[in-house]
Q: What sequence folds into this?
């Protein structure tokens, strides 16, 4: 896959291709959270950055969706500034800015709490 920092059209196709290419639980998980992000923020912009990282933005980065051998990592660019009453953040907790959610095979995410987190991140970007 090519490296580009394009928005929506090409990026969406590249994300589709990544999901298909993974062909396992990681692809299913990435597709699921992508759907939740699109439902939470219908006008979200999909981007493809840093040599193959799906990025969802609205007025700034909401989160990225990286896939590794044992986790799908959803990194929220300004996660440390977001309320997380459900305790979804379970990774990158030591920094002052980012926070992440690591999802492992067989784990599910609280869709309602995740959507609230995505909406809060978009709102924070819009408040600047």
A:
């Amino acid at each position: 896959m090519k490296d580009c920092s394009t928005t929506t059209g090409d990026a969406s196709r590249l994300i589709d291709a990544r999901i298909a290419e993974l062909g396992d639980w990681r692809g299913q998980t990435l597709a699921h959270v992508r759907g939740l992000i699109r439902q939470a923020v219908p006008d979200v912009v999909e981007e493809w950055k840093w040599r193959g990282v799906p990025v969802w933005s609205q007025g700034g980065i909401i989160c990225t969706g990286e896939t590794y051998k044992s986790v799908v990592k959803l990194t929220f660019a300004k996660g440390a500034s977001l309320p997380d009453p459900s305790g979804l953040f379970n990774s990158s907790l030591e920094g002052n800015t980012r926070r992440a959610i690591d999802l492992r095979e067989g784990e599910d995410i609280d869709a309602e709490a995740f959507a609230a987190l995505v909406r809060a991140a978009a709102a924070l970007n819009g408040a600047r």
